[in-house]
Automatic annotation (TrEMBL):
It comes from the Eukaryota. This is Reverse transcriptase domain-containing protein. It comes from Solanum verrucosum. One of its GO terms (molecular function) is endonuclease activity. The lineage of its organism: Eukaryota, Viridiplantae, Streptophyta, Embryophyta, Tracheophyta. PANTHER family: NON-LTR RETROLELEMENT REVERSE TRANSCRIPTASE-LIKE PROTEIN-RELATED, RNA-DIRECTED DNA POLYMERASE, EUKARYOTA, REVERSE TRANSCRIPTASE ZINC-BINDING DOMAIN PROTEIN-RELATED. Residues 366-599 form the Reverse transcriptase domain. GO terms for biological process: DNA repair. Coiled coil: none annotated.
């Protein structure tokens, strides 16, 4: 089933021209569902089709839709009048009284989410109903009780990590008790329902039996929804395909992912191995070698022309972590992405924030002051994602780091701060990261430079670089030196040093962790701050090429006819993809080779 959805922020549907435009769009696109936003009209008589309005409307209709509310407010009355004026139907909500709450109790709870439908929609979909998806009853209450029962002494980071370990164990036990017997619960409910239905054929059921039958039907629906949610999380399917949203679809995605990511054979040199133990040993050996620093000595990087942040900006970057900033980071994270070694997704932290926030805030403030946490926070799984079908060599796999939830929050906090100043630190050659620029600008500049070079009739050299395993081979000492020369404060440097040098890796081979080893170089793909650190690391190469160009060791391509206003283009960078423009003379090629060798 394929559905076309048309959404338009129309702003003023009373305008006849806009109504004509909408009709034309409908005829052209033949949309199945139409969303018109901010229509701002009083008379909806112009719309004759089937339509539905749904979402977080941020207002209740009746006083009983808000906990502990004993009067109907003017906003409620206006909302009800609007529904009547629009000729909409407000379907009853099944499965819950409220759709929003804060905290673990009902001190703040209300129904602010709803679907409103037109009579035409109701005529077409006669069996439509509005149902609140079930939540496991008492889960947050259980979390609150468990969390408050743990007695742990030590530094705040240690306390947080230990309490999360205890909580993980309790949730695992609870999960087996509540969700581990879904099939058994469903069979029992179906059996009880069948017995009642058979009894109803021979006699009139009592009021209690009728109520039991309704409860059993509701319970079966809840079990089906719970199973769907479970398989959706296992599938890591964060979008829906062709409108399908059912357990079978998510189950097939989860199983397909497992088959696709399974490493059942591996090509090493010219030999193919299929023994599971040998495969694990080869993969572990490969990544231990990859993250080993092969050069015990490197020249000290000194750049005279690096951009610097101001002292005020450095102080701002190192300011205290506040509760609002921390929770904003948690809310911005994808909810059900694969967890790291601690087993917690960001969905849990969002829902349980009011329960666990005190320990999180204390741990982060301790980190702010001391610039380190317990080592387990930086434990990392490396998940091997195939770049293509039938991958058989290790170079065909992309290593993605699955980091712990606490480290993810910390790293994203720092990444959000860093991205506010990074535009000041990178040169125009890293065009995509300069504020106000577009990624496509680099392509346009490259084409323009090439066109002018061809028109000039002079020989030139265009070098395309793709740095192999770029993230994995970043030198820690080089990166920290770059940060110091860019004006970052000592506290920030210590934060970055903790992030990149205290890591310990385990490789996930067919969903099983292998090894536990410390790297000597590299930054993690999957770490929120890594892309920004890599950009700053590449700025060193940019400055080296820029200096070689300014000293006329290499001649850049020139754009324009007038020598006094020509633009020089020596290089363009986007992440680990680099274009270098220079003359074709042997001396320039040798100088470029030396520059790349030093870098």
């Amino acid at each position: 089933m394929r559905i076309k959805i048309l959404s338009w922020n129309v702003r003023g549907l009373n305008d006849s021209r806009k109504r004509s435009t909408i009709k034309s769009l409908l005829m052209k696109w033949k949309a199945d569902i139409v969303c018109l936003q901010e229509t701002k009209i009083e008379d909806w008589g112009t719309w004759d089709g089937q339509w539905v309005l749904g979402g977080d409307l941020n207002v209740c209709r009746f006083d009983y839709e808000k906990f502990n509310c004993h009067r109907r407010t003017r906003a409620m009355e206006n909302f009800s009048e609007t529904i009547l004026d629009l000729g909409l139907m407000d379907l009853p909500l099944r499965g819950a009284q409220y759709t929003w709450s804060r905290g673990t109790g009902l001190l703040q709870a209300s129904r602010i989410d709803r679907f409103l439908i037109s009579s035409e929609w109701n005529d077409t979909f006669k069996t439509i109903k509005q149902v609140a998806l079930p939540r496991a009853e008492g889960f947050l209450d259980s979390v609150k009780n468990w969390w408050s029962s743990y007695e742990v002494e030590g530094n705040p980071d240690f306390v947080l990590v230990q309490k999360l370990k205890y909580l993980k164990k309790d949730i695992s036990t609870w999960n087996k008790e509540v969700f581990g017997k879904l099939e058994e619960q469903r069979s029992q409910a179906l059996n009880d329902l069948t017995n009642l239905e058979q009894s109803s054929e021979g006699r009139i059921l009592s009021e209690a039996e009728n109520a039991q039958m309704i409860n059993l039907q509701t319970h079966l629906e809840q079990l089906a929804k719970i199973e769907e949610v479970s398989w959706r999380q296992k599938s890591r399917c964060l979008w829906l395909k062709d409108g399908d949203r059912n357990t079978k679809y998510f189950q097939s995605v989860a199983n397909a992912n497992r088959r696709y990511n399974c490493i059942d054979k591996l090509k090493i040199a010219e030999h193919v191995i299929e023994d599971k133990r040998e495969i694990k040993e080869e993969i572990l050996s490969y990544y231990q070698h990859l993250y080993t620093e092969n050069e015990p000595w490197r020249p000290l990087a000194r750049f005279e022309n690096l951009a610097r942040i101001s002292e005020a900006e450095s102080t701002w970057l190192e300011r205290e972590f506040e509760e609002e900033e921390i929770f904003s980071v948690i809310k911005s994270c994808a909810l059900d992405k694969a967890p790291g070694p601690d087993g917690f997704t960001m969905a849990f932290f969002q829902h349980a924030w009011e329960i666990i926030k005190y320990e999180i805030i204390k741990a982060l403030r301790h980190y702010h002051q001391h610039c380190h946490m317990v080592k387990s926070v930086n434990a990392t799984f490396i998940s091997l994602i195939p770049k293509k079908k039938r991958a058989i060599e290790l170079r065909d796999y992309r290593p993605i780091s699955l980091i712990s939830s606490i480290y993810k929050i910390t790293s994203k906090l720092l990444a959000n701060r860093l991205k506010t100043v990074i535009g000041k630190l990178v040169s125009g050659s890293q065009n995509a990261f300069v504020r106000g620029s577009e990624i496509s600008d680099a392509t346009l500049i490259a084409n323009e430079a090439l066109d002018w070079k061809i028109k000039s009739g002079e020989p030139g050299l265009l070098v395309k670089l793709d740095i192999e395993k770029a993230f994995d081979k970043v030198s820690w000492s080089y990166l920290l030196t770059i940060l110091r020369q860019m004006g970052f404060g000592e506290r920030w440097i210590r934060w970055m040093k903790f992030s990149i040098t205290t890591v310990k890796y385990s490789i996930l081979v067919n969903r099983s962790p292998v090894g536990f080893f410390p790297p000597q170089r590299g930054i993690r793909q999957g770490d929120p701050i890594s892309p920004f650190l890599f950009i700053l690391a590449m700025e060193g190469l940019s400055k080296m090429i820029q200096q070689a160009s300014s000293l006329h060791w290499i001649e850049p391509f020139k754009i324009g006819r007038d020598p006094t206003s020509q633009a020089n283009v020596s290089h363009l960078l986007y992440a680990d993809d680099t274009l270098i423009f220079c003359g074709a003379e042997r001396s320039q090629v040798m100088q470029l080779n030396l520059t790349l060798f030093i870098f």
